[in-house]
Amino acid sequence: MLRDAEPQSIRLADYQPPEWLVDTVHLDVSLHPTQTRVTSRLALRRNPKGTAGAPVVLDGDGLTLVRVAIDDQPVAGTAYQATPDVFTLPNPPSDSFTLEIETLVDPTANTQLMGLYRSSGNYCTQCEPEGFRRITYFPDRPDVLSVYTTRIEAGREEAPVLLSNGNLEKGGPLESDPSRHYAVWHDPWPKPSYLFALVGGKLAKVADHFVTRSGKPVELGIYVEEGKEKRAGYAMDALKRSMRWDEENFGREYDLDVFNIVAVSDFNMGAMENKGLNVFNDKYVLATPQTATDADYAGIEGVIAHEYFHNWTGNRITCRDWFQLCLKEGLTVFRDQEFSADERSRPVKRISDVRVLKAAQFSEDAGPLAHPVRPQTYREINNFYTATVYQKGAEVVRMLKTLLGPAGFRAGMDVYFQNHDGEAATIENFLTSFAEATGRNLSQFALWYEQAGTPLLKIQGAYDEAAGTYRLDVSQSIPATPGQTVKQPMVIPLAIGLLGPDGKDLPLTLGNSPLENGVLEITQAEQSFVFTGIPARPVPSLNRGFSAPVNIESNLCQKDRVFLAAHDSDPFNRFDALQGLALDLLKEGARAGELPSAEPLIHAMRRILLDHGLDPAFKAQALALPGEGEVARELGQDVDPDAIHTARLALRHAIGQALEEEFRTAYKDMTCEEAFKPDAASAGRRALRNLALDYLAITASHEGITRALAQFRVADNMTDRFAALCVLSQHDVEERETALTSFHDQFQNDPLVIDKWLTLQAQIPAANTLDRVRKLMAHPAFSLNNPNRVRALIGAFAHGNPTQFNRPDGAGYAFVADIVLQLDKTNPQVASRLLSSFRSWRQLEPARRDQAEAALRRVADTSGLSADVADIAIRSLA
Ligand code: B3K
Ligand code: ZN
């Protein structure tokens, strides 16, 4: 199927350096709701590495040109060509000159939320990846680095706060018109246009300060809508901890006099790392115990850290081109994961990161949207801010650290910062830094960036009693993915242990050499490892800590898994052993329509639950079953979401029934009388208590439901209140509607809390949910123009309600396709993200597959689609 206007592909192989460089940019922005005037003075210089005589070609997107001057002289309209989307100067006057361009933009009409737009009346910008061209004509590519000076002018009433990147140079009322004022910001660090930001509006400031380890004071500011100042405390605390952590762990200090964060309520994603002026979705800034859950607090901590860490990995060293996106994103996700692991519980953080990886990235990698961590081609770069680039990108960095060891890794990072500071770099530059620091050849490792698909390791263990040896035969294969059928073996760091009959780790000796770090390096399609000095048949613990993002098929039996769940010294694999036991039952239950005996799993779970030495947060993770999506992915074909749901319900029921007494005790033991604290230990106790509540509510008696309603009513914090509401929402009982109504009435003026209320209802696994979602779209709190609302209601339905999105009558698909088409007219990025909910359609059983395909085709065949939606539709159907 080919559409008339199929977007053109851009290829990594075609990269050319920029023809012209821009040394300095002076922007003068006069804010106005519909006619913001932008004057840009560019100091242009011909790139010595460019083509002789090349014209100046600048990107634009929907711009209205007012005036052009060269070296301060007005230029006749015949000297250049300008359309809303491109500006060309065919005959530049010299190899170095000043180009001044005045344009007009309409921030109020900007519904795409890319470029300069308005959120709750305030002005703000989003430029990554290609939004700067919606503000002014510019070589809008990440390898053009410039020093920016930005003067902003606005009405003092309308926009008392005026912010941009860097340090504030001057500001004050205009002499000519005291009702207006201005501010000049200067950012001394050269940066690409995607890191530009500007904010103007009525905002309240929460101020703090930080002294870097070399003694440099930094003023910190978090700007929020007026009245929300009290909600920014945790974000500020997380920011200061992040700044310290980056100094201590990577030797990276902050480099400006100020660091500002602005929280806005209309934002396409989580947050943006603009130099010195991060702009955030307010969801990742605002929190009080009464409005935010423990998960929200963890999310805020992680995103604040992530954006702050970009200051070095992304901003000081940026990307040469957008194919290198994982260079900053994968690395920065790895850094924020490590920060949270240090601030909280390392094993629990790893477990939750792997859950996210498997749910989001493994399923992406197994479907039509699979692509390498560094893609070779794209039609719309906005569609490549994916779980593969971010999460798998982070796993690749983690593997590098496992292979090189902590010291080798740190040495490589130091070389990277040393050699590439101030540059727009590539993955090759990154890997070369580690090769240089450690002497290790990383050419095979580089395949992790090139080959898509989750590798499959088949592992067979065999014990030879007479020889006292244990042999592991390992084979690796990588599934075919779009455009890549033939794959080469990769380097896979496989952390392992061998448990003796007493459950303790046996010393690992390969031949005569001890395997000091416990990591096997798999480099070939087939490989065997023989461990010597093994006194009795061991149980292997494979891929400890999830050292490699791979699927494993092994000859571990149910008994082995029960043993590992009880004894493994690696907490991740204790968790994973339980997950494996549960997955086997769920797959079989979904296939056969009847659940096999859950006794071994329940036995293993009981042991974990009663182990007083274990962290409650760990128990909560270990006792939570794999999600329905994970079961679907593991089944891989002929997926019937109803059968999976039924099997999972039956298993939850069996566990709840069998461990009722234990869960009752855990609920009681984990109850805390003290006031809410968001720290990891307190959050872990709440997590276990709420998990117990969930299991108690599923047993036949009404006790759990009554308990949940009581908890809902008396809770003094959102974590417990919302957890109780989640439990109630899963049951078709009167109490569900009572609680939903009361929650709404209590929080109706708090959009971020109402999002939770929308999400919960969109995820009810009941036949009338689609009607409910339709009705909620008419609720005054809902708006298709606000990305958070759309994700909370429609996104939650499409991505988080497998039985109802995949209704056998196809009504779920049709509904989501309708919304995608409607949204595409105003916000293509949010629309295309929503359309990616179809990505696993080929794995469905035939009847649903046909329905999903029909809905996808209807989208693909619509004329006038954005490049964003067209690209996802085309690739999903390919
Ligand atoms: N770099 C931004 C993401 C921009 C997404 C543009 N569609 C946030 C982040 O990853 O930190
Ligand atoms: Zn990022």
Summarize, please.
With 878 residues, the chain is of the alpha+beta class.
Structural description of this entry:
The strands form eleven sheets. Strands 6-5-9-3-2-12-15-14 form an eight-stranded mixed β-sheet, with no helix packed on it. Strands 17-18-19-21-20 form a five-stranded mixed β-sheet, covered by helices on one side. The protein is α+β, with helices and mostly antiparallel strands. It is built from 26 helices and 34 strands. The protein is globular, with a radius of gyration of 28 Å. The model has no long low-confidence stretch (mean pLDDT 97). Among the domains are: 1-105 and 136-197, tricorn interacting facor f3 domain (Immunoglobulin-like); 456-567, Immunoglobulin-like (Sandwich); 579-877, Zincin-like fold, CATH 1.25.50. (3S)-3,7-diaminoheptanoic acid binds at residues 128-129, 269, 271-273, 306-307, 310, 329, 382, 385. Zinc ion binds next to helix 3.
- According to CATH, what is the class of the domain at 579-877? Mainly Alpha
Average pLDDT confidence is 97
Count every beta strand, where a strand is a DSSP E run of 2 or more residues.
Answer: 34
Q: State the helical fraction.
A: 40-55%
Spatial strand sequence of the major β-sheet: 6-5-9-3-2-12-15-14
Termini Cα gap: 8 Å
Number of helices: 26
At the fold tier of CATH, the topology name of the domain at 579-877 is Zincin-like fold
Largest sheet: 8 strands, mixed
The CATH architecture of the domain at 579-877 can be named as: Alpha Horseshoe
**What does the overall shape look like?**
globular
